[in-house]
Design brief:
It is built from one helix and five strands; from the N terminus they run αβββββ. With 141 residues, the chain is of the alpha+beta class. A hairpin with a 5-residue loop joins strand 3 and strand 4.
Amino acid sequence: MRQFNPKNKGNNKGQVLMLALIMFSIVSVLSAVMASMWQAEIEVRNQERNSLRAFCLAQAGAEEAKAWARNNSGATTSSDVSLGGGRYRYVVSSATGERIIDATGETLDSSSNVIATRKIQLKITGSGASVAQVSSSWDEK
């Protein structure tokens, strides 16, 4: 084992510089990795937020279509509504003994490009106050 000799204390300067460079390199790499992870997390959260907005818009369209179906038996209609940072549309069509509601919600960016879409489909029976929802499904794009 090498012992400390006060006469040779200047000989360790190169080792300290090398250690400092290695530590700086490690900290730099870790910082770059963390920045990349944070950016990916921000993008994922933005996608989730936009998808949730689109789903809420699709629900708004489905609710409006159900209200229309309660008041108009046997008819077919469609609507396209802009709301906030998106839009929803719905189509009510009649089939044998039931009506089908297709509602779509879309989240838009500042240039009105679609960035998230959700679709809801409902099957309902009856008319007026006796409208009953038979089944529902949703799709995400």
